[in-house]
UniProtKB/TrEMBL annotation:
Residue ranges, compositional bias (Acidic residues): 10-22
Annotated ranges, domain Vps41 beta-propeller: 53-356
One GO-annotated biological process of the protein: endosomal vesicle fusion
Lineage: Eukaryota, Metazoa, Spiralia, Gnathifera, Rotifera
Name this protein carries in UniProt: Vps41 beta-propeller domain-containing protein
SUPFAM superfamilies given in the database record: ARM repeat (SSF48371), WD40 repeat-like (SSF50978)
InterPro entries found in the cross-reference section: ARM-type_fold, Beta-prop_Vps41, Clathrin_H-chain/VPS_repeat, TPR-like_helical_dom_sf, Vps41/Vps8, WD40/YVTN_repeat-like_dom_sf, WD40_repeat_dom_sf
Length: 820
């Protein structure tokens, strides 16, 4: 068995502080399975109810409980009685009950000295024996169904067995120290306890192994309040507890025994002895672990206090505390220590605890209980981690808990601590149905906290009822939170609520001349969702809202917005270029108007438009550009209209840009413009220098230089002339390089041709002479006449072209052969 604590019982003061004690996670969970009031005739009178239960025994199939009235009740492990197996055994309180290993027989004894053996499935084996003294203890042979033996004890240990004709009693040993109150049978050994101490008897050898007197010296309580508690761990280990004293004894074979006897003598040895900080009221030993039913204290006046279940595990020569779980039972304070009883059920690994008023069951806490503990301690992060990432152990899997249950506990705690914003983020993990969400929404509306919840309200899986969505929207409308209303109208799909209902509610608040912009946007969004795009466009244009451009892009409204292009330019000047670049052909009818708009709002982009567009009126565009004083655009339009001379004059006189003038002349390719440019430049030194530097390939520089006056001073002329010479040298160098490349290529091609011509040409016997049309040679002849093959690949017999052997008679311009 394991637990979360690890404290040595040697450390009396302890190292745990109060905070650590609070963090201790119990090992067991306790639940009552029945109470004495269920077996009384008047169940309603629970006040001052008398004690009903006196003793208990546990089997893998059932629980047997003795009552103070002498009855024996049989119930399942959940506390449900099994009516057909109830036994009316005695008329006095039942002192002890014993069950054989098979669960076929039940032995019981009572205060009046009677012992009854009851068969559950056959009454033929029932026995009833009366002894002269009260019998406090009875113990059936584990193999009773075969041996029919059992042990009883008053002051003497008695072996009872069925003889051939009558019941047979054998007094084994007399314990001087009062009535035997506890008996435990393990193989051939019997442990018996009375008020004086505990003895071990070897039934096979029929001798006493040893006797340990009680060493508890507590004189504050009357004798018998804390009777000896005994439990076999195995056939060689017995654990004894007297009040707060514990001894572990081992049974060993005595090496000095009489070898003439076939049965070795056994002896007892104390393996461990220690004091506890509590008092023992019940004991069982499991795989060397010691399990105690304990109380903190007991007084005649106050009764018992702080009932707990404690586990000690061996660690070397000491024992360490592995669990110490306090719990409570009905009537535990009114119960004396000797009235408690602890029994262990190995099959289910659980404990049953009895007092006169109730029976409780102690089970090992499972993984769900671990999560419950973390939740109870408000350790929600650890609880979530434990659920989502459990250890790899087989038993470390939640069965009862779900993601929803863990997060629900967390949300409930957050809501209780007023951490609303943190709680609503977890709502999608907690609330899975429409009804749960609707309940929360109504609560948040009542608390005026709807803003915190709306980001997490689902629109699908689960989908809420339409009136709930409408209630949310109308709430924002009534509270004039139009921005929040607009956000939800944009975010939510239109099929989850009635658009007409919300539209009518908005119309009722938009009749005023001072309608808020946000509310107008809400109206536009509703109109778009209803398919009334024209209304949406009208509202945005009226508001001069930047969202109109998103609407145009989204709905492809380029044709509809052209009449409103000036309004759109007032909203955003950059949009004009986007309209033209998106679909230029769709705006052909408005190109002239676009020229005016570009000139007014985007003059830097006008030149690009003029070059790309082709459906504007050139004269109107020229007039607009002249009016707006846009010389370069004017030059372009003049050139496009065929008035190159005027365009050139504007470049020279207004722009004063010789390079642009050269470029203009070069683009037009008109020699007359070049002549005009030279004439306009011969009296302007900077223009002359520009022509020398940039137009050397387009004009006759000699002619230009001849026209320049001899006394005209041209700054930078030397540099220009040097540049001309450098350009000439570069041109000559390039020409020479080109000549060398051509010569090299020609030589390479000639060599390739010669190589090709020198190669042989395969002639087949199927080839025919181009003149006589007979095969040029035959494979059957040893020698064939000579043949000739021309570069044109025509083949002839040599004798067929004797008159002109160097010319192909087929390809020659003067046909040498006539067609037959």
């Amino acid at each position: 068995m394991c637990a979360d604590t690890n404290n040595s019982i040697e450390n009396e003061e302890g190292d745990d502080n109060d905070e650590e004690a609070e963090e201790y996670e119990p090992v067991f969970k306790f639940c009552p399975i029945t109470n004495s009031s269920e077996f009384r005739e008047n169940k309603n009178n629970t006040k001052n109810a008398p004690a009903e239960f006196s003793c208990m025994a546990v089997h893998a199939r059932f629980i047997v409980v003795g009552k103070t009235t002498g009855e024996i009740i049989i119930m399942d492990h959940m506390g449900h009685t099994i009516p057909q197996y109830q036994i009316k055994a005695h008329t006095y309180p039942v002192n002890a009950i014993s069950i054989d290993d098979n669960g076929d027989y039940i032995g019981s004894c009572c205060q009046e000295g009677k012992v009854k053996i009851s068969g559950l499935f056959s009454k033929n084996e029932d026995q009833l024996h009366t002894f002269p003294r009260p019998i406090k203890a009875v113990c059936l042979d584990p193999n009773f169904s075969k041996s029919k033996q059992y042990i009883t004890g008053d002051t003497t240990l008695i072996l009872n067995e069925r003889g051939t004709f009558r019941h047979k009693e054998t007094k084994l040993i007399d314990f001087q120290g009062g009535l035997i109150h506890t008996l435990r049978w393990k193989e051939t050994l019997i442990a018996a306890a009375n008020d004086k101490g505990v003895g071990v008897y070897d039934l096979r050898a029929r001798r006493l192994v040893g006797f340990l007197e009680s060493t508890d010296t507590n004189t504050d309580v009357p004798r018998g309040i804390f009777p000896s508690r005994i439990s076999w761990n195995d056939s060689t280990t017995l654990v004894i507890a007297w009040a707060s004293t514990v001894k572990v004894i081992t049974i060993t074979n005595d090496t000095m025994y009489d070898h003439q006897s076939s049965i070795p003598r056994k002896s007892i040895n104390i393996a461990a002895s220690f004091k506890l900080e509590f008092f023992v009221c019940g004991l069982t030993s499991i795989n060397r672990d010691l399990v105690f039913l304990s109380i903190e204290n007991f007084t005649i006046s106050d009764g018992t206090s702080e009932l707990s279940l404690t586990i000690l595990s061996p660690s070397g020569k000491e024992y360490e505390e592995k669990a110490h779980d306090p719990f409570s039972m009905q009537g535990d304070q009114q119960t004396s220590p000797f009235q408690f009883q602890l029994e262990y059920l190995p099959d289910e690994q659980c404990f049953f605890i009895l007092n006169p008023y109730s029976i409780s069951k102690a089970e090992r806490r499972d993984y769900d209980d671990h999560i419950d503990f973390l939740i109870k301690k408000q350790k929600f992060d650890e609880a979530i981690q434990a659920f989502e990432k459990p250890p790899t152990r087989i038993d470390a899997k939640p069965k009862r808990h779900t993601q929803q249950s863990v997060y629900l506990a967390y949300v409930t705690s957050l809501m209780g601590n007023k951490e609303i914003e943190k709680a609503v983020k977890l709502f999608p993990l907690v609330y899975k149905t429409a009804e749960e969400w609707e309940e929360q929404i109504l609560l948040f509306i009542e608390r005026d906290q709807l803003d915190m919840l709306t980001p997490y309200i689902p629109t699908d899986a689960p989908k809420l009822h339409a009136p709930v969505y409408q209630k949310i929207l109308e709430t924002y409308l009534q509270k004039k939170k139009y921005d929040k209303l607009k956000e939800l109208l944009t975010k939510w799909p239109s099929d989850i609520y009635d658009l007409s209902v919300i539209d009518q509610s908005i119309i009722l608040q938009t009749n005023s001349e001072k309608t808020p912009q946000a509310l107008l946007e809400c109206s536009a969004i509703i109109a778009e969702k209803r398919g009334d795009i024209s209304k949406t466009l009208t509202i945005f244009l009226k508001m001069q809202n930047i969202q109109v451009f998103q609407l145009i892009e989204r709905k492809q409204l380029y044709e509809k917005i052209l009449p409103n292009i000036q309004t759109l330019m007032a909203i955003n000047q950059n949009y004009l270029d986007a309209v033209f670049s998106r679909k230029p052909d769709d705006t052909r009818d408005f190109h002239t108007r676009q020229v005016s708009l570009y000139a007014e709002y985007e003059p830097t982009k006008l030149m690009g438009f003029l070059r790309k567009a082709g459906n504007y009126n050139i004269q109107e565009a020229l007039s607009i550009c002249e009016k707006k004083r846009l010389p370069r655009e004017t030059v372009f339009l003049c050139g496009r209209s065929g008035n190159g001379r005027v365009a050139l004059q504007i470049i020279l006189n207004e722009l004063n840009d010789i390079e642009e003038a050269i470029q203009f002349c070069r683009e037009t390719g008109d020699k007359k413009l070049w002549d005009t440019l030279i004439e306009q430049s011969i009296n302007r030194p900077d223009f002359i220098r520009g022509l020398l530097n940039h137009a050397g390939g387009d004009i006759d520089l000699q002619e230009l230089i001849d026209k320049v006056k001899n006394d005209l001073r041209i700054p930078g002329l030397r540099d220009s002339l040097c540049k001309i010479m450098q350009d000439y040298n570069i041109q000559m160098s390039i020409s020479e390089c080109c000549r060398k490349i051509i010569v090299h290529d020609c030589l390479a091609l000639r060599k390739q041709t010669v190589t090709l011509l020198q190669g042989g040409y395969p002639v087949k016997d199927s080839d025919l002479c181009a003149k006589c049309h007979n095969p040029v040679y035959s494979c059957d002849l040893l020698t064939n006449p000579p043949i000739s093959v021309f570069f044109c690949l025509h083949v002839f017999h040599a004798k067929c072209i004797e008159t002109n052997p160097d010319v192909c008679g087929v390809c020659s311009t003067n046909a040498l052969f006539t067609t037959a």
